[in-house]
Amino acid sequence: MRTLNDYFISLGNIDLGGSSDTSNIVCVPDGGELIGVSYNTSEAIDVLGTADLFIDGADQNTGFVFPITAVDTGGLAQAETQVFVPDNTSIQLQSQDQPGTGIIDCTLIVRR
């Protein structure tokens, strides 16, 4: 039995207020449960921001909610449903274009 390990994969920036802006596509070499998306921002997020999750280019019908956030802070956004990521897959987030939100720098947290 192996121990639980959380690992972190940078997704880069995504503009939550952008028209269907997408993050970088990243590979998840070791599958596991997607714990959440850690994020930080250098600008205030004035309304709830949301982004959809895509695995291997397919919409997973679940998303992440990024709460109202002060300037130069961050937080942890959790998926609306439990998500398990298979080995050797790609992940991407796509914004849902909400005015009043800003650019965030995202990092995936996967527990294997």
Number of strands: 9
What is the count of helical runs?
Answer: 0
The H/E string reads EEEEEEEEE
Task: From the alpha carbons, calculate the radius of gyration and give it in angstroms.
Answer: 13 Å
Structural class: mainly beta
**Shape verdict:** globular
- Residue ranges: pLDDT <50 for 5 or more in a row? none
Helix coverage percent of residues?
under 10%
The end-to-end distance, rounded to whole angstroms, is 12 Å
Major sheet: 5 strands, antiparallel
In terms of DSSP E residues, the strand content is over 45%
Output mean pLDDT: 86
What does this entry look like structurally?
This protein is mainly β. It contains no helices and nine strands. The chain has strands at residues 6-15, 26-28, 32-41, 49-55, 58-66, 73-77, 84-85, 89-95, 103-111. Strands 1, 3, 6, 7 and 9 form a five-stranded antiparallel beta sheet that branches. The protein has a four-stranded antiparallel beta sheet with strand order 2-8-4-5, with no helix packed on it. The radius of gyration is 13 Å and the shape is globular.
Short description:
The chain has 112 residues and is mainly β. It has strands at 6-15, 26-28, 32-41, 49-55, 58-66, 73-77, 84-85, 89-95, 103-111. It starts with 5 loop residues before the first strand and ends with a strand.
